[in-house]
């Protein structure tokens, strides 16, 4: 860009008074994302959300969320540029600004999700976004076919920050805490228990399996899996998605025989060497094709369906 320093747009933290303009930019491209973004900005606040500004104008927005219980892993949040400013290098400028912020926090990996949604008028509206992320160094890691709805794939991209060979050094306080646990304490042996299923937002009849860690190596059993599959059938689920850390080695022997298919992984998601392994169970289409029992469906207002990560 041929601009002097005074004119160069810069990234600054998003403020409450920016929300309307940011929503306008998102809405222009994706009504669903704008609705979800509005809810999230107002409910969860604007921490780690940013705007690209030029003088007093807001040209675009981006941001991130830290993923709990991981070693410095992040999701990219809504990343949009005003139509008038696309294709001029501002997207790269905005993302490089974001990467500088993340690198200052010793970020290790950042992930995003997008889709291959085909708009009736405009076709593959995320094609250029996918090319953009690849140009920035993101790598496609996983695809879920028929995720949002039959025919619409969810695509995960991951970016590994360079120059981070080792995990963050353990602080003195953490070392002291570890010592306090005592030498004869039983080591924690992670296992997993299923806690339920819920419909995945922005999807049509796709459900996610919810679970929590145990600390004594116990796992859910075959009966529990049968129970959640029955519940998902009752609610007319199309697909039940699940994901578990790759170091929970017992999962494969539990899910495989019940008809779940392993479906790729997000590499080094939890920490280096521990991936997020994805599974899915596809149900036959329900014979009545119809309404769920006891579980509300959200309406079909999806003109466009957009992505940009977990927010
Ligand atoms: C995606 C978006 C943020 C990209 O910003 P942008 O300013 O248009 O992109 P830039 O001009 O900075 O391009 C950066 C790089 O991406 C590449 N790129 C961008 N669009 C591309 C396309 N359609 N095909 C191929 N490469 C493309 C550019 O070639 C450039 O590569 P280079 O820097 O190595 O030369 C912006 O276009 C946008 O907001 N689009 C609509 C909303 C959207 O889809 N958001 C993403 C939701 S997942």
Automatic annotation (TrEMBL):
The keyword Transferase applies. This is GNAT family N-acetyltransferase. Gene3D superfamilies: 3.40.630.30. Residues 9-162 form the N-acetyltransferase domain. PANTHER family: GNAT FAMILY N-ACETYLTRANSFERASE, LD18367P. Residues 286-311 are annotated as: Disordered. Residues 294-311 have a biased composition (Basic residues). InterPro entries: Acyl_CoA_acyltransferase, GNAT_dom, NAT_camello-type. One of its GO terms (molecular function) is N-acetyltransferase activity. The keyword Zinc does not apply. It comes from Acanthopleuribacter pedis. Keywords: Transferase. It comes from the Bacteria.
């Amino acid at each position: 860009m041929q601009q002097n320093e005074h004119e160069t747009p810069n990234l600054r933290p998003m403020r409450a008074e920016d929300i309307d303009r940011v929503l306008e930019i998102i809405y222009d491209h994706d009504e669903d994302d704008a609705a979800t973004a509005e809810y999230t900005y107002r409910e969860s606040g604007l921490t780690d959300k940013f705007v690209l500004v030029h003088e007093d104008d807001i040209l675009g927005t981006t941001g991130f969320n830290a993923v709990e219980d991981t070693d410095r892993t992040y999701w990219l949040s809504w990343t949009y540029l005003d139509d008038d400013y696309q294709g001029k290098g501002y997207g790269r400028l905005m993302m490089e600004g974001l990467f500088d912020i993340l690198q200052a926090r010793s970020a290790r990996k950042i992930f995003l999700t997008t889709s291959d949604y085909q708009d009736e008028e405009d076709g593959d509206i995320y094609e250029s976004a996918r090319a953009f992320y690849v140009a920035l160094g993101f790598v496609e890691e996983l695809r879920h076919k028929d995720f949002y709805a039959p025919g619409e794939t969810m695509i995960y991209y991951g970016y590994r920050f360079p120059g981070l060979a080792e995990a963050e050094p353990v602080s003195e306080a953490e070392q002291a805490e570890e010592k306090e646990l005592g030498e004869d304490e039983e080591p924690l042996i992670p296992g997993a228990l299923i806690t339920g299923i819920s419909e995945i937002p922005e999807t049509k009849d796709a459900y996610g399996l919810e679970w929590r860690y145990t600390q004594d190596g116990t796992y859910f059993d075959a009966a529990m899996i049968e129970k959640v599959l029955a519940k998902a059938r009752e609610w007319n689920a199309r697909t039940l998605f699940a994901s578990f850390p790759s170091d929970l080695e017992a999962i494969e022997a539990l899910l495989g025989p019940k008809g779940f298919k392993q479906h790729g992984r997000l590499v080094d998601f939890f920490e280096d060497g521990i991936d997020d392994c994805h599974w899915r169970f596809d149900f036959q289409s329900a014979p009545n094709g119809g309404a769920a029992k006891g579980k509300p469906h959200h309406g079909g207002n999806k003109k466009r369906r957009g992505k940009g990560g977990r927010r």
